[in-house]
Specification:
By secondary structure, the chain is mostly beta strands. It is built from no helices and 37 strands.
């Protein structure tokens, strides 16, 4: 499908739709010239995402925040000078957002000497505090950190290797003071037969009842996806489940791990890459923890892809919708980023509804995704210019008038749109057409603003007034 530019799509609700009912923005460069390894994306505040990644050249970890209008602020280096960061294209920093707080974990450079560190922002990613060491390892070394946060309690999982790199296993370190200090790590993955696969990124998720670590296991070179569970806030891990029983036998580390989210209090969704009969496959598993069984196991792919390069799936969840991105060979060019979604009420990742988000020559890979208020936010690494790119995905026919939580009025005459805004603060006015293309945007300060529609084509337009986390949305027919 043709890509179209649109802005601030947090106003749109997602329904179960066919691929042609989605609009995709033009890809926007997050930053150029400072690497593109392992980009991650999270929503920081309404309409504004943050992105982290590393550079293999500078050995730094970076963070950049969208300006809420048309681009990203200059990237900020998060590691202090003199502390180089490990940088792989398939593994790297992770971050989480809770309220105004942004937490980022990363691993210092050095194959057998690295440690795990965290930095925290308390002002929505505008500034970051001092670097805090997470692990307390006196022997061995940490790898592949991932974190989750609940009520300002920080949970970080990472792989611990013995000196010499033997006996890899995942541990969890907890901070109960918002990341100022970390308790001694707890061994988590040793309750499963075998050992942890020694170079695959894990995923840790938390809710009010569970702390769970998902990872690729290695039981005599059978490298399937497992998860361990704690019901005492990561003091101990006593149960485990199997998300993947495809018995993928490989005598080398696949360097690709799982991704997971809670979709109910007792239900999780996980996605992962495996091989079946020497063919790459991506699966999504919905697992009921209460019943201790998988309720849905779905293969994820697109008929537009070659199937030869299926890898690195990532999952997101919000408001009964699951989204997945992955990489595969596309259009005979090289690698591209693909997307599909499903409602949780009836899991249906129809391959015919999958979309190629990039469809460009070269390598667009290692995607990540998040979803909020009906808008999917996607980042990926582009190997052609070694930069990170960002795009949005939203539905077209789910646009409707929203109940306003802002003191304003939007009305229309034959050739005018009239905005009456009773607040003293400034507001942002955004107009898009029904295809999501940006028509007009401006900052308004007057109590009354009039837009002329003389040059607008006939059709349906969406007028959005935004002030902080308040907004009004109105459809106008020209």
């Amino acid at each position: 499908m043709k890509k179209r530019s649109f802005l601030l799509l947090t106003l749109i609700s997602v329904l179960q739709l066919n691929a042609q009912d989605f609009a995709v923005t033009e890809s926007l460069k997050v930053a150029g010239g400072v690497g593109n390894h392992h980009p991650q994306v999270e929503l920081i505040e309404p309409g504004r995402v943050g992105v982290t990644w590393t550079s293999s050249g500078t050995k730094n970890v970076y963070f950049a925040k969208h300006n809420g209008v048309d681009g990203f602020a200059d990237p900020v280096q998060l590691n202090p000078e003199g502390l180089d960061v490990q940088s792989y294209d398939w593994s790297g920093p992770d971050f989480a957002v809770e309220g105004d707080n942004v937490y980022v974990v990363f691993r210092s450079n050095g194959h057998e000497t690295g440690h795990i560190y965290m930095v925290k922002s308390t002002d929505k990613g505008e500034t970051f505090g001092d670097t805090v060491r997470v692990d307390a390892l006196d022997e061995g070394y940490g790898q592949f950190p991932d974190l989750a946060v609940l009520n300002d309690t920080v949970y970080v999982t990472f792989m611990n290797h013995d000196d010499g790199g033997a006996n890899p296993s995942y541990e969890v370190a907890r901070s109960v003071d918002g990341g100022l200090t970390f308790e001694e790590e707890v061994l988590a993955a040793s309750i499963i037969p075998g050992e942890s696969c020694d170079c695959c990124q894990p995923e840790i998720i938390v809710n009010d009842e569970y702390v769970m670590v998902f990872f690729r296991n290695n039981d005599d070179n059978i490298r399937d996806i497992k998860a361990v569970t704690s019901i005492d806030r990561a003091v101990s891990f006593t149960e485990w489940i199997s998300l993947d029983d495809h018995n993928w036998y490989v005598e080398a580390c696949p360097a690709t791990g799982p991704d997971a989210r809670f979709i109910e209090d007792d239900k999780v969704v996980a996605t992962y890459k495996t091989e079946v009969g020497d063919e790459p496959k991506v699966f999504l598993n919905v697992y009921d923890l209460e019943a201790d069984e998988s309720t849905d196991l779905v293969e994820i792919y697109s008929p537009m892809g070659t199937g030869d390069a299926l890898n690195y799936p990532q999952v997101c969840y919000n408001d009964e919708v699951i989204g997945v991105v992955w990489e595969d060979g596309g259009d005979g060019t090289s690698r591209d980023v693909f997307f599909n979604q499903s409602a949780t009420t009836s899991i249906d990742f129809n391959p015919d509804n999958a979309m190629n988000l990039t469809a460009l020559a070269g390598v667009q890979a290692k995607p990540d995704i998040t979803l909020i208020n009906g808008v999917f936010h996607v980042v990926y690494a582009d190997a052609t210019d070694f930069s990170v790119y960002y795009l949005q995905i939203a539905t077209l026919n789910a646009i409707d008038d929203m109940e306003a939580n802002i003191d304003a009025k939007i009305s229309a005459t034959l050739n005018q749109v009239i905005i009456t805004y009773g607040e003293e603060n400034t507001a942002q006015l955004v107009v898009t057409d029904i295809n999501g293309r940006l028509i007009q945007q401006q900052i308004i300060t007057d109590s009354k603003t009039i837009l002329t529609m003389d040059k607008w084509e006939s059709g349906v337009y969406v007028v959005t007034l935004i002030s902080g986390d308040q907004r009004m949305v109105k459809k106008i027919v020209r």
